[in-house]
Amino acid sequence: MYSRSITYFFQKTQIYLSLDRQKGGNMNTNEQNIQLQQRIKDLEKEVSELKDRLFYAEITTKDLTEQKQYFETIAHFAHDWEFWLTPDKKFNYNSPSCLDLTGFTAEEISTPSFNWTQLIFPPDLDKFEKHINDAIEFLSLDQELEFRILTRTKQIIWCEIKSRPVYDSRGKYLGLRASVRNITRLKNALGHIKQLSESKTLETKAKTRYKDELEMKERELVTSLLLFSQKNALINYLKKQLQGIKTSTSPAIQQKIENMLSKIIGSTVLTTDWNTFKVHFEKMHPGFFERLVARYPLLTAKERNLCAYLRLNLSSKEIAGLLNITPESAEIARVRLRKKLKLSREIRLTSFIAQV
What is the DSSP string of 279-310? Predict the structure, then answer.
């Protein structure tokens, strides 16, 4: 533009000089020379000013071109889909990355005939349009929205849009600037995490239910053992009472008492129910006896039985009733077991057995 101005200026100058020569016929030579020199100086000054203006214009144009290339590079090579909507909802800019996200080029989306709302997955269209309208009309600022788009190949992709109004240097409203990011992997990951969380919750509930069932069965087993223990304790008590009465009665009564003692002794629970107990115990504490034998192979059968009763937190009195021995004998059996297991005084026998 400035080059054309200088050319035009020189052409105009030549015309002025020609006219001056024609008028010069009425002037003397000295006057003509003075006027001509003055005109030349004026022209040279104007030419110098035009050259300066041209120089600065070229520098400014170069800076603007470089800035334009810089910002275009940033926008064109953005990973997310960047777009600029005018206040009347027309595209003023679309970054090329929209092709990777939607399957449509920036030129296709920017054409007036393109219905860009067709990109939105139908169930999400209402909330997406509300988001855009609210942002354009200043009803919401710096808002985010998760929605789904339908690509050119009819694939559904989860996206997140962040938008905000833009203005020029004088504060004039220019429309809406938005960034659209693909969050499909994130949504899938969150869904997977949710599934894992739900599975973990179900697993925890199942474990809790299984634990509750085991505890209930253990209580049932302990209850049945206590009944056996109480029965044996009652039988032993009756035996002692009858034996005390026997010595102070007639021979006929003594014979009846003897018959009663025979029946009572016959009904005493010793080890006849052990096999049944072991089956139920193994269901609640699988592998207990195998681990016990592997670690302490020198334990006797009675000592292993005692360990099982201790695993159920039975007291010496209750164990005595099950083994048909006195509580004192049960205490002695516990002491001997501690020695075989080589336990120090600081370690509780029941706590140790629970860790087997």
Answer: HHHHHHSTTHHHHHHHH-TT--HHHHHHHHHH
